[in-house]
Amino acid sequence: MARVPKFLADYSERRGFPARVTGREELSPSLFRITFQVPALRDRAHGPCDATAFRVAHNDFRHYTAERVESGSGTATVLFHRHPHEDAPGLRLVRELSSGDEVTWCGFGSGRTFRWPDPAPAAALAMGDTTTLGLLVNLTERAEQDGTRFLAVAEVEDDCVAATRELLPDAVVLTADERPGAAAAHWLVTEAAELLPDLAPRLVLLAGHGESVQRQRTLLREHHGLDRRLVRTQPYWATGRTGL
What we know:
Layout: H1 6-14, E1 17-28, E2 31-37, E3 51-57, E4 60-70, E5 75-81, H2 89-95, E6 102-105, E7 123-129, H3 133-146, E8 149-156, H4 161-167, E9 172-175, H5 182-189, H6 192-199, E10 203-209, H7 210-222, E11 231-237
Parallel strand pairs: 7-8, 7-10, 8-9, 10-11
Antiparallel strand pairs: 1-2, 1-6, 2-5, 3-4, 4-5
């Protein structure tokens, strides 16, 4: 999880990147974008799965994937999900941020098991929820740059559907119900039967709700016959547990 001993948290923060908030946009009742000026990101190589962490307590962090990074200017945007748990430490921190505020980006990168490969795959599929929209935007743009045939599938709350369709006009946008992952699982055993054989993904990235990610991986393997070695997973949150 995101908690570490305090001495490691102190060390991570000391090695972090100073950042300043330069803008904030409300995209829907449950979704907002914050723009950061992060000088350390200038001319720094980055990948679409790269994430940073904000310290939210003496031994606790929350991780967020960038939506876009402009290396030349050192500007980055992050999409944040305003979920119902108002007392969550990550949400408490970011919902109060406004232009001029300073925050430390504690690192920026991705794990070896969840990243965009080089060379890029011929075709790829990515699935996620409202917490992963920044990741899906970044992946979509990188796939276009690399000439990868790409399909994004996003399961989002009803009040985020319109905003998500603007962010991801070519994606499959599913309306979530009270059961996380149910809409995505239904799609995998219905409409996906026509889309996935034509796409023939050589990489599958699954992120978001942990239990849903595992269910999707199982369905892709058992229902669609995908090789499990093509699937990469990154849980962002889990029912009844703190975020990552």
